[in-house]
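FW: tagging you since you asked about this chain on Friday. Here's the raw sequence from the shared folder, copied in full. Didn't touch anything.
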Amino acid sequence: MADRTRADSWIQVDLGSSQTVSNVRLAWESSAGARYTVQTSEDGTNWTTRSAYGGAPADVNVSRLDTVDLTPAGAAEPAPVTTRFVRMQGEQGDPAYGYSLYHLRALTPTGVDAAAGRPASASSADGSYPASAVTDGTATTRWAVSKADRTRADSWVQVDLGAPTAISQVQLGWESAAGRQYRVQTSLDGVTWQDAAAFRYTGDQILSSSGDWLDVEGKAGFVVRGSTAPITVSREGDATNVVRLADGTAGARLIEMLPADAAVTRARAAAAEPTTDAPGVLVSSLGGYLTAFNLTGADVKTTVVVPYTGAAVPLYAGTQQLGAQASTLAITLPAATAVVLAPRATVPTASAATGTLTATLPDARTVELTGSPATVDVTNVETGETRAATIAAPAVPTAAAGLASTATPAAAGPAPNVVVFASATAYPVADLALSTFTYPASVLPAGMTSPGLAVDGDATTAWVPGPGGRMVTDLGSVRAIGFVATAWDGAAVPDAQVAVSDDGITFTPVGTIAGGTRTGSLEVAGNARYVALTTRWRTGEAGLTALRVLPPGVAVDQPGDGTGPGGDPGEGTGPGGSTPGSSTPGGTGHGSDSAGRHDPDALSATGLSVAAGALLAALLLGAGAVLLVRRRKRTGRVH
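HL: got it, structure written out here
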């Protein structure tokens, strides 16, 4: 207590041996130092000042003051750089406001600010927050990027020193919208730039781990695959923690997100995962779905190896070889796309582990098994029904007394066995509207239920329009439409006007589906992305159980067995030839093939997919995944 008024108090740390230190971070209590220096020493006796915090009047509004040492090109240690121009080149700004800076100071070896009063320019500026504010020396003026550029990562601001000058440090006084990551660049002509320093703000680090999973208060978990970089948690404010997954590394990595506690997350991290030998392709089995991301710029054909992890082996669309310890499945991925395959059926692991079976699934209703003679239980995932499939031995021709038998020879090779689950849905189905996004989405008019209930593929749910209700479905892109068909859950059916649009703003009426009957249809014979249905619904009338949008050539009365035009059932993929799939809140996403038939077994993605309530993302981020976590009482545990 006696030293509370002592100005030259100090605290030091012995690192144990000589270490290379890039920066020092001080986390102050409310009685924070107003002015102080950061010093280093090799012997604990002789000290060298490396940085100083002035707490000057001009910095009274500064939220964060960064003092960055410059290093000449090709040099290993910091030293003065002779330059005329100094630039802050942004790489990652504040998520909401981008970059906002009170001061940019260019300090000479003697501590003189060579940038004071010099002209400054920037990539953009917001009205009364010009670039010139960073060198005017006042506490109340600042530069901020334009509103349009707030999400632009590579914004910049620079100062012309007027003549080549030796600069040893650059000091940046940030407003709360501070740069999270940036480079300090120098130039003699304002055209050719050299990196002289790099800065990445990590806050006050709370936790760091070389493990591969993280639990957040027992409510959510993250699993990082494909990276050995640490997971870190830092405090960036009174109510905000920042979680960095695979912190500070470049390259591809897979991050799985699941609503689970620590035990479940730990088990997920330890589970055997699918693999592929294709460079740039990452695979996961999160939520029981087989997900593959092609993070390259070229189309990829590859084989995925799916290890056995439980009592049952999932079977996916296509042909799957069942080996002794894993199954293999060939997939094709267009450049920069992803595919999520849902399991359509399962067989016991004990049966698969014989290593002699091949499973072919042409649709979600049919399983064809070939292999050595065996009886195998096959369970349909949708219905839960189990049926026994018997693979018979091949018939062998017989002969008697030297005469050839007259019996018809059996076909060479193992005899196929086909199991059909008649009560299951034979995806893909010919409905462009199945599981699409619908509107209104959140605040619903009085008396209306969610329009998503009309496109969820469930005959037991229905959209109740409410008085004069209107719904819109988004097909994802402009599609060729043959018919729009409706199905209602009662006899009191209102008239329904159909309109279409390419932009979701201007709609063109195409006709009316007359009420009075449970099912109806209207031929559109045109192209559109959005389809609107407007009713004259009155209290007590029926609800809409299905709104179907069918491509040309598909009959209205077709039950959705995937037999329309377009050839073999297609896999849902992202950009590169077919329509991206989508997902409705709380529902399952669906992809579509080239014929426009939707398949929940082929959920499309372009790097981000929702599967079984879990978020799965393949990331190509130089600094890893960054998550903002609003703190309550505890931080997450890192493992």
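FW: The mean pLDDT is 83.
HL: agreed, and The radius of gyration is 32 Å.
FW: great, closing this out.
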